[in-house]
Write a structure and sequence with these properties.
There is one protein chain. The chain is an all-alpha fold. The chain has a domain of 41 residues. Helix content is 57%, strand content 0%. The protein contains 3 helices and no strands. The longest helix has 22 residues. It is elongated, with a radius of gyration of 27 Å.
Length: 80
Amino acid sequence: MKVKEVPLVEEENPATYLTHTWQWDPEQDMLHLEEERDYLLYEIMDTYPKEVQKILHEYDDIISKRAHDIGNCTSRDVNG
């Protein structure tokens, strides 16, 4: 059986290696997350349009009342 020879590689600190090979771009990361969020929102809206509309109407109803008590959560009107 023939063994493949592997060239010797100078040992490098893992932190140095990652610093030089992978550079994080926070702006690109945020754009990617926004695209993923939008995709998921559209997928949910397409799959469950009636349920989404019901939730949005309930949300509008709660918000329009300003200070409200929805059972386990009570808010107070900071403006009034």
